[in-house]
Amino acid sequence: MRRITLTTLAAALLFAAPTTASEATVTIHADQGKYKINKEIYGQFAEHLGSCIYGGLWVGPDSPIPNTDGYRSDVVEALRRLQVPVLRWPGGCFADDYHWMDGIGPRSQRPTLRNNNWGGTIEDNSFGTHEFLNLCELLGCEPYVSGNVGSGTVKEMAQWVEYMTSDGDTPMARLRRQNGREKPWHVKYFGIGNEAWGCGGNMTPEYYSNEFRRYNTYLRDQPGNRLYRIASGASDYDYNWTRVLMRNIGRRMNALSVHYYTVRNWGNKGKATAFSPEEYLLTVEKCLDVENVVRRHCQIMDETDPEKHIALMVDEWGTWWDEEPGTIPGHLYQQNSMRDAIVAALMLNVYHKYVDRVRMANIAQMVNVLQAMILTDQEGTGHMVLTPTYHVFEMYKGFQEATHLPLDIACDSLSTVEGKRVPSVSASAARQADGSMTVSLVNVSLEESSELTVQLGAEAREVEGRILTSKQIADFNDFSHPDVVTPAPFNKTRLKKDRLTLKMPPRSIVVLQVK
Fold this sequence. Notes:
The protein is of the alpha/beta class and 515 residues long. It has ten helices and 28 strands.
């Protein structure tokens, strides 16, 4: 295959129309599907950070912005269309500063808190346990609660679990009823700390392992509610953290987490919508390196857990750019371009390959923060816009609970300015319960179309498709132009028995439903 090199180009070339096309072949092994793609791979994350909660998900029942019991009606409806499977809260770093009793009872009487992690904003605690768990019911998703190990106590965490899940005549259950909720909530996923190696306490893996064992002892399952216990795992390349936790905690945990952000330089992350072709390819290379990270953590877990009882949860992932000019420092408000959509599609395709061990992934974050699904107007006018990343998640819904089908790809490679190579095409395939197939295809190239042949591995009768692309890789949606990057029907496929051919434009994502 040819090797395509992007060197320093004039800015205009970033948006140049394609003049050539490369060829690629995707071969799907339709008879080799073994593992289900857990819907939780499409999980979301909402932290008390910037305007993710306040002004994003929650405006309060007295707001002039249309709402349902305080939840923004337009945001809730948009999230329902994504079929959100699980929502992680209240952090993130905020979780280990959060004391849950501050967020219950009459809102006017709740104490305030300075958000020390994110801009020093004063948190009024008007969105607390009831508001979060009721939102999960409204969205039809599982709650994932992150408990405070860093600055909390064992008693505090144990009482929180009792408050949320006990249906008995217990002190915390009585307090919950006093605050207006008769029946307990169902809370499956519970994180025992967050980033214990950093903002969650700057612990060593050995120390955290002991803390996990101590806290875990007192998190008692209630009748009708069994906790799925998630340990605070590693930051990307810290493989020793995983090795120590697997040895010292073992099957006392149901899962451990790993965090992976598409950031190349933490001191200079770059702009969300102004970047060169070289920067784009470096971003692609960094995001695809998640496969090496996931594979290595899985290998370490296999050493002591070959039966894969313990899951790996990528419960924070996504792009992280410089904050938008004019926004509040520390609130991590960033725009979201076609580049972010490409990153989302590539990383989801990777997660699908490891679903024997990776059973959840939570993108950071749901609204107004980092690689968000939705942006809401910071001036309070009630405007909302769906990001290119939102559209990827909506287009990929067919993968939830489908059976992953392994595949092979033969394609050209692209070379970064650092000499590293990335494939020009990414793909994933899954078989749904009715026997139909979902196939995702990504053309990474900025310049070349891709003439694709897809060997389905089984005969098909019909195919329908949708495409997400834009004229420029830096295109984004804003309140004045909300549909610059939006899905469109894709009918440029030819089907002959078990063989599909199509031509994808550059910087595009295509999802096909094959029957």
